[in-house]
Amino acid sequence: MAVQINPSILSADFSRLAEEAKAVDGADWLHVDVMDNHFVPNLTLGVPVVESLARATDTPLDCHLMIENPDRWAPQYVEAGAGSVTFHAEAAAAPVRLAREIRAKGARASMALKPATPIEPYEDLLPELDMLLVMTVEPGFGGQAFLDIMLPKIRRTRELISKHGLKLWLQVDGGVSASTIEQCAEAGADVFVAGSAVYDTDDPAAAVSMLRRQAAEVTASAPWACAH
């Protein structure tokens, strides 16, 4: 199973977003954090910036909506050019309907869980999704330390994915770096959002390649991957 590295532009220079996107041309996706200062205590960017980014890069956009009322707003991010749209389970009023609408508009549908939100109540929803995001920090700000207490949750999520025979990507976001990515891969993650671990380096493209190698080496021998 191929691992994917999604650099987060939350850690990029917002005055040079087009250039920062091109600096990670080898990435699988470009992770775009949308925050509304309501669901999380921070305000970042919205639909117009996503539209501009989609025109500025060939790397597909992975939009993570940390916003209230995603049922209303998420479809607009598909129309803006996002290839994957993640809404939060804690914010969505009708997650199944929303996931189906995102898919119907042509994007991958993803649902995110904050650290305190368990995966088990959402087991029956997994077939409606293309990706499940386990937050490994509290959403809202970049540069936070990785919460290793999320590793058992990643394992449980991977077990549910395997139980149902789903081709569901399992993403982790928060504190992912050279020192934590291998733990995440061993636990079952295969899509990794990395912000400061990529953009706070002298060579973001090289950082992406290094993280991908680390995750791929662990995944190759991980029990969950060998079972497929």
From TrEMBL:
Give the active-site positions. Answer: D33 (proton acceptor), D173 (proton donor)
Entries under InterPro entries matching the protein: Aldolase_TIM, Ribul_P_3_epim, Ribul_P_3_epim-like, RibuloseP-bd_barrel
Record-listed substrate binding positions: S8, H64, G140, F141, G142, G143, D173, G174, G175, G195, S196
Identify the EC number(s): 5.1.3.1
| Cofactor(s) annotated in UniProt | Co(2+); Zn(2+); Mn(2+); Fe(2+)
Q: How is the cofactor bound?
A: Binds 1 divalent metal cation per subunit.
> What keywords were assigned to this record?
Carbohydrate metabolism, Isomerase, Metal-binding
SUPFAM superfamilies to which the protein is assigned, alphabetical: Ribulose-phoshate binding barrel
Q: Which residues bind a divalent metal cation?
A: H31, D33, H64, D173
Pathway connected to this protein: Carbohydrate degradation
Q: Which reaction does it catalyse?
A: D-ribulose 5-phosphate = D-xylulose 5-phosphate
> Which Pfam family, any one, appears in the UniProt record?
Ribul_P_3_epim
Is the keyword Disulfide bond assigned to this protein?
Answer: no
Answer yes or no on keyword Metal-binding.
yes
What family is it from?
Belongs to the ribulose-phosphate 3-epimerase family.
This chain's function reads:
Catalyzes the reversible epimerization of D-ribulose 5-phosphate to D-xylulose 5-phosphate.
Name listed for the protein in its UniProt record: Ribulose-phosphate 3-epimerase
Gene designation: rpe
